[in-house]
Amino acid sequence: MQTEIERRKFLNRAMLGALSVFAVALGAGTIEELWPRPKGVFGTKFLAGFIDDIRETIREQKFFYNTAGRFYLVSYETSDSSNFYVQRGVASHGLLSIYQKCSHLGCRTPFCSTSGRFECPCHGAKFNYAGERLPGGPAPASLWHFPLEVRDNGSVYVDTSHPTAQTPAGFFTIDSTQTGPSCISD
C-alpha cells in the first residue's frame, strides 16, 4: 500500500514539472514573438540605401548586396505594370530584390560576375540575373524575392520579413544567356 502512494506522488510531481516546463517555454516563446525587433536585423524592414547610390553600385559591379539583410538588388525593367515581379511588389523603380538563400538547401548563392548569374556553390544550382532557376542543378524553383519600397526621398526599403514571389522552374522574365565562364565547376 505504501508503494502506491509514493508512485502516485511521483507521477503527480512529474506531471506538474512537465506542465511547468511547457508553460515557461510557451510564455518565453510568446514574449519573444511579441517583442519588437530592433531595426536593421534580418526579418525586419531594411533601409538599403538611396536609389542613386544603389544604381551607381550596380553600374560598377552589376549588383548591390546587403550583408545584414541577406539580399541583392539588381537592375530590372519595371515599366510593364503586368510584370510578375512588379505586381508582387518586389520590383520597383528599375530595381529587383533577390534573397541570397538557394531554393534547394538554403546555401548562400553569390552572384558570378563572369557568367552574369547567381550560382550556388553547394550543389551547382544556377539562377539568371532575376533569380529565376535555370535548367540543371537540384533547385526546385527560383530564388525568393523581398518586397521593395522606394520612398519619395529616394530611400530604398526592403522588407526581409516576407520572402515572396518565388517562381517555378522554367519561368523566365529576362534573357538567360550566360555572358562568360561559370564561377563553379559543372
Account of the 3D structure:
With 186 residues, the chain is of the alpha+beta class. The protein has two domains: 1-35; 45-159, 3-layer Sandwich (Rieske Iron-sulfur Protein). The chain has helices at residues 2-34, 51-61, 84-87, and strands at residues 45-50, 64-66, 71-75, 91-92, 95-99, 111-112, 117-119, 126-127, 148-150, 155-159.
Distance between the termini: 74 Å
The CATH topology of the largest domain turns out to be Rieske Iron-sulfur Protein
- In round numbers, the mean pLDDT is 87
Order of helices and strands: HEHEEHEEEEEEE
CATH class of the largest domain: Mainly Beta
- List segments where confidence is low: pLDDT < 50 over at least 5 consecutive residues: none
What is the count of distinct domains?
Answer: 2
How much of the sequence is in beta strands?
15-25%
Radius of gyration: 23 Å
Let me know the number of strands: 10
The neighbouring-strand order within the major sheet is 2-3-5-4
Structural class determined from secondary elements: alpha+beta
CATH homology group of the largest domain: Rieske [2Fe-2S] iron-sulphur domain
| Share of residues in helices | 25-40%
